[in-house]
Amino acid sequence: MSLLRHSATTLLSQMSDGKLSSVELVQEYLEQIERHDGRVKAFLRVDAARALKQAAAIDDRRSRGESLGPLAGLPVAVKDLLCDEGQLCTCASRMLADFRPPYDSTVVAKLKAADAVLLGRTNLDEFAMGGSGENSAFQVTRNPWNLERTPGGSSSGAAACVAAAMAPLSIGSDTGGSIRQPAGLCGITGLKPTYGRVSRYGLVAFASSLDQVGPLAGSAEDAALLLEVLAGHDPRDTTSINAPVPRYSQTIGQPLAGLRLGRVREHFGPGLDPEVSAAVEAAVEVYRSLGATVCDVSLPHEKYGIATYYIIAPSEASSNLARYDGVHYGYRTDERAMHDELAAERKQLAATIGKRDFDAQADAVENPLLRMYRQSRSEGFGPEVKRRIMLGTYTLSAGYYDAYYVKALKVRRLIANDYEAAFRSCDMLIGPVSPTPAFKIGEKHSDPLAMYLVDLYTVGANLAGIPGISIPCGRSRDGLPIGLQLQGPAMSEERLLRSAHMFQRNTDWHLARALLD
Amino acid sequence: MTDPYMIVIGLEVHVQLATESKLFCRCSTAFGAPPNTQTCPVCIGMPGSLPVMNRRAFELSMQTAVALDCRIAPTTKWDRKNYYYPDLPKGYQISQYDLPFSSHGHLDISDPKGRFEPRRVGIERAHLEEDAGKSLHDEQHGEADSRIDLNRAGTPLLEIVTKPDMRSPLEAKTFLTELKLLLTYLGVSDCNMQEGSLRVDANINLHVPEDGRAGGVSGATPQSAVIGTAATAAGTIATPIVEIKNMNSFRAVERALEYEAKRQWEVWQETGQRLGDAPKQTRGWDDAAGVTHGQRHKEDSSDYRYFPDPDLAPITVAPEVVKKIRRGQGERPAALRSRLEQSYGITPYDSDVLVSQGRDLVQYYLAAADACGDGKLASNWLQQDVLRSLNERGGTIGDFPVGPTALADLLSRVKRNELDTNRARQVFQKMLTEGITAAAAVEALGIKQVDESELIALCRELLAANPKVAEDIRGGNDKAAGALVGQAKKRNPNANPGRVRELCVELAKEKM
User: Fold this and answer.
1) What confidence tier does A363 reach under pLDDT thresholds 50, 70, 90?
2) For residue B511, what pLDDT is reported?
């Protein structure tokens, strides 16, 4: 059996038993990337030399009997949105095409400390804004199960690389569904932790109150392994939660007796693809057969989730992305061309309105700083990013702030209350991840509203700050993966992982890898 | 006080807090380092970086607000103020908008010279925010070479906004002086205006009586009796408010406000523009020319799109914390002044001079005055001798060679008539230069108490040798005895001039 079919957990034990070296393993993944990523385009950059060097160093330390970190020698792919000191961090934006942060994000520092091998940087929707990966300024990632389809987004590369067995583990970020949705569309396991469970320090911000870093992996067991490394309090992120990290990978095998699942009524409404519905209902039956009780629950404000999300997230984004102004960070317009243009305009204006009037108007017409800002941002950002900046600027503006932003915060509270109420009658919520299996590349690209609806079932967890996990639970007639979502109350990652593992121990959807089968 | 209008002034003061590190990161706040050397990913707004509040900065802010009798909000939060400027690396400033940590305070001001009535200036609010960096640019279009120094970016600033309660430029200046003194007493800021630790913007307009304009350019009949008492009395018209910036000293604030009041009165007479007729104008003070200049009005700069910073959790302040701060604070300047006046019998002028010197000098004064039992004498000596020497020598009162007990010892000798003022000054100098006690200095200078009988003999001799003087004294001119004092001092330098004078008069008259 190919190494690529093994779980990260198995690979780890093979390495610690001395049956496998990290160099061999990394070599294997590099070859798989070589074979397939020309078509899948999951990675923006693969630094083979660096990965092999790290792997060799770990093998060397292992051979000398040194104690090694919990991920020693395992390759991990990182979404190109998390700072890795001295390495490019583009956020799939032209704006940050040359940006090399001088510091490590807490997550990357933890991976390094755990002796993971940093395999490469995965593609995403620009600044994590999108649900298909098509908003990347550099390349469109394809779904390994069907190259005509999107892998979902924004963690498009992060999901695709695991689905195509080009990495055993990868790191994504989830602001409205960006880990769970692509995991679902690519048939892998993805977990969005409780807000604050994983440090955001060094994660380039999209919407600060919603962003959360999490693992994507082949199984819940592997996700547990990775989350255990990522989670924990960080004094550099005051929104991170100061609570001990459970040993997720140790407890994952313990089944949950008397599990009470809540079937979210609103997640089975109009718009849900019948094949998805059937697969999810079948998964509910699997749980029932394992002794779980299932009841119907309602999240009455869930229908306002997308609207609420698309006010709060863009509002925060409009402010978070203000720093990309051509002065300090990222792309700056061609200043020489700009100044030539200004000079020409000045000349033309003077000729048209006469010297006297020109002197009076000159400033208004041609403030070079303003023009530099405007041109740098116009040229550096893609259309979806600009759309959200404009949306957020509008909703925070005087006169609209109360009607939009403040109102959205109130609805957000109601949505969180709904979840709280639901968790009084059940342990976990069960439902689909996305309304449909993977859609075609280009299908929704020109229709932002249709695209926004792909997050219909996932934004609630971000608004409420609760964890959610996406696991594969079936395949459509076209062979496309279908995802099942479990959501739990804040800090319930351990039980979410155990529940997911219960399912995976009794099904084999998670074992399939695209391009291998 | 004959102006036909009332001046209304409010101030916005930015105080740089004396913390070692910045508000949201651990970079140093020291002034004068080479550009961009005191920076890190957080204060330069590096993508992915996150702020962590400096607790010390919040504590110092609370100290100040409590000393200004502000209400401390039980919950406060951070807001983002969004605007684009090259010295603002994140594109927003972390500040406090609708829930400042403190509000509704006040600071009392008065003038020891009595030029205005004591006044309570309301504090609208005080909030904490981060400073921006510094832009250095060539004002030329296009080819300008602009440079940015972010050392200052993220330095904690306390913004104190007063109510429009001041009625003259002098009151504004006095308020600032009193505020600076208070901040110095609290030790929350070094208040160095040159280094930008204290920055002031002023808002000013005029309240003109309805018939003020009819009164003509000369403003013939002063209405001040009426309008001097009420802020928005019926029958008065408010002129448009002007904000003045670029004032680099308290004196400049006073001058700028004086200039601006006159200018606004002239504009009012010309245009009759009222508050609301024109947008709020910002004018810059040109200290050399002594005038204010209108600054370009930015129409789009008003909407800062404030919203709560999602990177920072709200802060809750327990009432016990506020109580603890209140208990821990020493006497404020105003309280000290009135204690000095009431318990030590010195004038408001003297208490003002002493208290203005800072808490350490006041402690020195209190120790000296208590030990010698004469507040007035101690005050005189402190102002005339101690402060003068301190100014000449430099240094602080803490390392002044003559401690308060030693000074009190000297002053007690003066009180007991053992030393006249001149001799006492010599002793003081000796104590100062050699760091010795009063007793040792007295001895070193060979000062001895002259025996009364010896002194009587000396005076008799002098009277005998100067019959004309004796005659004058007998004729009722006691002052004539002064002529003998000098001679007595020559014969015996330890002779107490006061006693010599008394004895001469006594003895001359005895012979009558």
Assistant:
1) low
2) 59
Please state the CATH superfamily assignment of the domain spanning residues A3-305+414-511 in this structure.
Amidase signature (AS) domain (3.90.1300.10)
C-alpha span between A211 and A204 (Å, rounded): 10
Chain A contact for B86 (CB, 8 A cutoff)? yes
pLDDT tens-digit profile of B100-116?
A: 999 999 999 999 999 99
Q: For residue B315, what is the nearest residue in chain A, using CA coordinates?
A: A238
Is the pLDDT at A39 greater than 50? The verdict is yes
Q: How many residues does chain B have?
A: 512
Find the closest chain B residue to A105 by CA distance: B48
Report how far residue A126's alpha carbon sits from residue A149's, in angstroms, rounded to the nearest whole number. 19
**Which residues from B are below 8 Å from A390, CB to CB?**
none
Interface test with B, best of A323, A345, A371, A401 (most B CBs within 10 A): A323
Question: What's the distance, CA A246 to chain centroid?
Answer: 23
What's the start-to-end Cα distance of chain B, in Å? 61
Q: Both tokens of residue B70?
A: 């502000």
What are the CA-CA distances from residue B327 to residues B123, B158, B188, B312, B321 (Å)? Answer: 21, 22, 17, 29, 10
Cross-chain CB nearest to B47 (options A101, A363, A398): A101
Q: What are the backbone dihedrals phi and psi of residue A104, each rounded to the nearest 5 degrees, phi first?
A: -90, 140
Query: Tell me: the pLDDT tens digits for A138-152?
Result: 999 999 999 999 999
Complete DSSP assignment for B7-21: EEEEEEEEEE---SB
Report whether pLDDT(A263) > 60: yes
User: Measured between alpha carbons, how far is A213 from A190 in angstroms, rounded to an integer?
Assistant: 11
Q: In chain B, which among 141-170 make CB contacts under 8 A with chain A? A: 141-144, 148
**A211 vs B contacts (CB less than 8 Å):** none
What does the domain layout of chain A look like in residue ranges? 3-305+414-511, 306-406
CB B23 within 8 A of CB B54: yes
Q: How far are the Cα atoms of A311, A491, B52, B342 from residue A240, in angstroms, in the given order?
A: 23, 12, 11, 56
* DSSP conformational letter for A128: G
Its pTM stands at 0.90
Burial zone of A282 (CB within 10 Å; 0-12 exposed, 13-18 middle, 19+ buried): middle
ipTM above 0.85, yes or no: yes
A465 and B CB contact within 8 Å? no
pLDDT value, residue A69: 97
Residues of A in contact with B305 (CB under 8 A): 318-319, 393, 396-398, 401
Q: Which residues of B touch A200 (CB under 8 A)?
A: 50
- Cα separation values, B306 from A395, B23, B99, Å: 11, 19, 12
A426/chain B closest Cα distance in angstroms? 30
Taking residues B383-390, report their average pLDDT: 92
Mean confidence (pLDDT) of chain A = 95
For residue A201, give the nearest of B50, B90, B312 by CB distance: B50
Catalytically active residues of A are: 79, 154, 178
The pair of structure tokens assigned to B431 is: 């104590």
Rounded-to-integer distance, Cα B457 and Cα B452, Å: 9
